[in-house]
Amino acid sequence: MSHPSTTPVKRRELFNSRNVFILAAIGSAVGLGNIWRFPYVAYTHGGGAFLIPYLIALLSAGIPLLFLDYALGHRYRSAPPLALRRVGRKWTEALGWWQVLVCFVIAVYYAAILAWASMYFIFSFTEAWGDDPAGFLMGEFLQVAETPHVGFDFVPQVAVPMLLVWVITLVVIGLGVKRGISRANVVMIPLLLVMFLILVVRAVTLPGAVDGLNAFFTPNWASLADPAVWAAAYGQIFFSLSVGFGIMITYSSYLRRRTNLTGSGLVVGFANSSFELLAGIGVFAVLGFMAMSSGSEINDVAAGGIGLAFIAFPSIVSSTSAGPLIGALFFASLVFAGFTSMISIVEVVTSAIQDKLGLSRVASTLVVGLPMAIASMLLLSTTTGLYFLDITDEFVNKFGILLGAFAMVVVIAWVLRKLPLLQRHLDRVSSVKFGKLWLALVGVVVPIVLGGVLVSEVIKHINNPYGGYPLGMLGVFGWGMAGSLIVGAILLALTPWRRSTKQVVDEDALDAKYEEIMQK
Amino acid sequence: MTGTAMTMMIISMLTLWGGLAAAILHLRQTPERVVDEGDE
């Protein structure tokens, strides 16, 4: 059944080629988390032994979930709300909007981190932080308010680069899939790889690097008996691969119908993990040098997240003649990895609005981009922006991405029972056919693992309120924000589609169409 | 580097980078073919 068309249906934009899609998907997956999260998570969860649960998580959950996203986007050729509407019913559209709103929230704070990294790239040449990188970050640069609250005291050195980040992102998105997103990734991903390789080669030749690598790779086999280590491995894979929150659905909707989905997905999945391993080697080689220089243990200098990037690395830059080069390469890598991810996150929202309202590419970019940029500037370029970022990042990851992905998998697998249809779709167009193994992994393993990680996170957050923040702030920007995403998703699903949009597809006709194309 | 750390590093590299190389080689065996897809 389909609704009668009142206006000509526009052809969906397409990536220039399969290789460009792969580059864009790698660009989305390889982000800040690969560089500043994976090395520390691996080090604190068994070192070399972490590889085992990590690899099992990649193969048993990460890649199968990636294929689910690909199958949805590719078969239904739309952003998450319409794809989930077409695979299910009217109410399943809300699951898609949930993913879109998660992307909205992430983009709002992601722009701030990109702005910081851009400024630190410049600071690397002047060592602007002097001999106190921590004091410089919190004081002179971010001017963080002494107590957590919501304020609107703007910090110009954060606001200006943030504005630039938004302008560049929206220009790329506004140019479209071929001229904007494709070109940006074709330039940035090879550059990122070259810069990071130079950084790693330089890092492993530093004195003390061997100690860092020993710390990173020495296995703690006993850790394999700890469920927290397995949860960390699955968590790392979910967050790192950009699965379950709309990005891969959106990107795969820009693929030609005759595209090898699983073959491409395996390249993306292994490329993402390969980059994480490279990051682990580079980061721990540098931390080994830092420990040796300061006469401390690796354990004392090892850090992740903002502490690694904006405190540990500046210290290293200041302690060697090669520092400015290491700093520039590191922060440029952060900027490039972050930009390609930021583009993919904003594209999810833009594409969803374009589907829903039938706007042009430029119009939908502005309708989406301006509110996002304004919210981002208002909340993040202030003296209280760091508090907002910290709370929002924690809650949107745990109770936005994880919960949303869990809901999508359970609904598709067990409520709609559409996994066999999607499995046949994947197998029809792909070279590597996983058949019933994929059904078992997505239908059983992924929900169990996601559910287990979610339950443990809920218990953890209830027993220990996150970060010691006031309960009011956690209530509004943590639990409140996470809950409002669900409410907002339901409301958006209730708004009408433009009349020419096919909300329901004839699955048999679609199967026949794909069969015909594959026979050509 | 210690023997154990070196061994784990080599295994990690072979598994992940080897996996990537194998995936790329496999994909190259199925080159992209653009066909007329008809109407939307």
Task: Give a structural overview.
The complex is a heterodimer of chains A (520) and B (40). By secondary structure, chain A is mainly α. Helix content of chain A is 76%, strand content 0%. Chain A has 21 helices and no strands. In chain A, helix 15 (323-357) crosses helix 16. The longest helix of chain A has 49 residues, at 156-204. Chain A is globular. Chain A starts with 17 loop residues before the first helix and ends with a helix. Mean pLDDT of chain A is 92; it is low at 1-8. With 40 residues, chain B is an all-alpha fold. Helices cover 65% and strands 0% of the residues of chain B. Chain B has one helix spanning 3-28. Chain B starts with a helix and ends in a 12-residue tail after the last helix. The A-B interface holds A 9, 11-12, 17-19, 47-49, 51, 55, 77, 210, 213-214, 216-219, 256-260, 263-264, 266-267, 269-271, 273-274, 276-277, 281, 431-432, 513, 517, 520 and B 1-2, 4-6, 8-9, 11-13, 15-17, 19-20, 23-24, 26-27, 29-30, 32-38, 40.
